[in-house]
Amino acid sequence: EVQLVESGGGLVQPGRSLKLSCSASGFTFGDYGVSWFRQAPGKGLEWVGFIASKSYGGTTQYAASVKGRFTFSRDDSKSVAYLQMSSLKTEDTAVYYCTRPYRGIDAHWGQGTLVTVSS
Amino acid sequence: DIQMTQSPSTLSASVGDRVTITCRASQSISSWLAWYQQKPGKAPYLLIYGASSLESGVPSRFSGSGSGTEFTLTISSLQPDDSATYYCQHYNSYPYTFGQGTKLEIK
Fold first, then answer.
1. Residue B9 Cα, gap to closest chain A Cα (Å)
2. Distance (Å, rounded) from C-alpha A92 to C-alpha A38?
3. d(CA A74, CA A44)
4. What is the DSSP string of A22-59?
5. Looking at residue A103, what is its pLDDT?
6. Shortest CB distance from A105 goes to which of B91, B98, B99?
7. How far is A90 from chain B, CA to nearest CA, in Å?
8. Using an 8 Å Cβ cutoff, are B76 and B18 in contact?
9. What DSSP assignment string belongs to B33-71?
């Protein structure tokens, strides 16, 4: 069974950094890319970005709203993907989800982790 | 970026009703469209991909249609468990974008 578990969320001050993790199990992690989405409280869903598998060069794509501030990485030996967030803004407050996409389709989602950016 | 527009924003219907939600893309996305159901406090749940393909395990009362810029999600006979917010999402090209959501309430 495919399982994704996000962790690392919490309360952080504006301008600071935070690193989220997405731990995967139930499949060969290195064969798949990882997507990240977020949802601000009471709002809709937003695509944050994507990191490809190593066989596709580990290339990354970022939403304009986070480009230059957020960085994706992965450790295939640990089956973990990371989202490094820096220069955080209050508008980054959201539940962050990771997914395992296949042919662009996000059928498997984690439970999400809440990031609150506030002073 | 491709804009996705859903209608209606809210919908109230009775058990057994046929319900339709519409999603419009600002440019052609072929059939690169997915529909998700989301309940409060939960992650989105994939219902439909490729505009009309039913995800495994999803009840057959859910169906999707359309291509290009106009798409619909239909629930043929509404059940109490269908109370949720529904989102369309294109995956034609980056950045992927979502419709604003349709909140479906059961009368």
1. 12
2. 9
3. 27
4. EEEESS-GGGS-EEEEEE-TTS-EEEEEEE--GGGTT-
5. 87
6. B91
7. 21
8. yes
9. EEEEEE-TTS--EEEEETTTEEPTT--TTEEEEEETTEE
Per the CB < 8 A criterion, the answer to whether A93 and A41 are in contact is: yes
Where do we find the tokens 């990191």?
A51
pLDDT, tens digit, 9 for 90 and up, residues A5-57: 999 999 999 999 999 999 999 999 999 999 999 999 999 999 999 999 999 99
Instruction: Give the count of Cβ contacts less than 8 A between chain A and B.
Output: 47
User: Two tokens at A8?
Assistant: 């690392």
Whether residue B31 lies within 8 A of chain A, CB to CB, comes out as: no
Contact B66, B33 (CB under 8 A): yes
Residues 6+ apart with CB under 8 A from B21: B6, B7, B8, B11, B72, B73, B74, B86, B88, B102, B104
Measured CA to CA, the distance from residue A109 to residue A5 in angstroms comes to 9
- How far is it, in rounded angstroms, from Cα A13 to Cα A9? 13
Q: Quote the radius of gyration of chain B (alpha carbons, Å).
A: 13
Q: Give residue-wise pLDDT tens across range B19-34.
A: 999 999 999 999 999 9
Residue A45: which of B1, B46, B87 has the nearest Cβ?
Answer: B87
